[in-house]
Amino acid sequence: MEGAMQPKHFPPGEGTTFKIGRMTMTFKTTAHDGWSAYTVCEAIEPPESGAGYHRHPTYDETFIICEGHYDFRLDGKLLKLGPGDTVFVPRGTPHSFVSTGPEVGRQLIISSPGGVFDAMIAEVTMLDTGSPTSDASEAAKAIATKYGLEFLRA
């Protein structure tokens, strides 16, 4: 069928990979590939890396913890997460996460609709935004704003 998405298999580590600070994000599906309903990203996070407190009104996210341990702040509440835990974050909900170790964390992040999260990450790949404990640079904030993401104070 011409123009239709074709089935794909993505072995571990395969996809479009970006380094953001100390995090490695491998996108399994992107809007660029015709996946507009959602984006799937495998994120590898060493201890003390993650995403600072933020919200975005343009897409929902689901986080599935595969390996490691995380402190996940969801709308002001602190959750302690480990393998098998899943968190759904509706658009507009403040959230953050940090890999707490001692092992490296790995999670799947599903964002919907597709094409927003993956495009933003592609644009910030040369900026240092991988630390949840430091403020984002002005350049990162400008890119985030372009995609509707707002950094918050915890």
Give structural notes.
The chain is mainly β and 154 residues long. The protein has one domain (16-151): Sandwich (Jelly Rolls), CATH 2.60.120.10. 11% of the residues lie in helices and 40% in strands. It is built from 2 helices and 11 strands. A 6-stranded antiparallel beta sheet has the order 1-2-3-10-5-8, covered by helices on one side. The longest helix has 9 residues, at 138-146. It is globular, with a radius of gyration of 15 Å. The chain starts with 15 loop residues before the first strand and ends with a strand.
Note the topology.
Layout: E1 16-20, E2 23-29, E3 39-45, E4 50-55, E5 60-67, E6 70-74, E7 77-81, E8 86-89, E9 95-99, E10 105-112, H1 117-124, H2 138-146, E11 150-151
Antiparallel strand pairs: 1-2, 2-3, 3-10, 4-9, 4-11, 5-8, 5-10, 6-7, 6-9
The backbone outline, from C-alpha atoms, is globular
Report the total helices: 2
Work out the strand percent.
35-45%
Largest sheet report: 6 strands, antiparallel
Write a short abstract of this structure:
The protein is mainly beta. It has helices at 117-124, 138-146, and strands at 16-20, 23-29, 39-45, 50-55, 60-67, 70-74, 77-81, 86-89, 95-99, 105-112, 150-151.
What are the defining features of this structure?
2 helices; 11% helix; six-stranded antiparallel sheet; mainly beta; Jelly Rolls; 154 residues; 11 strands; 40% strand; five-stranded antiparallel sheet
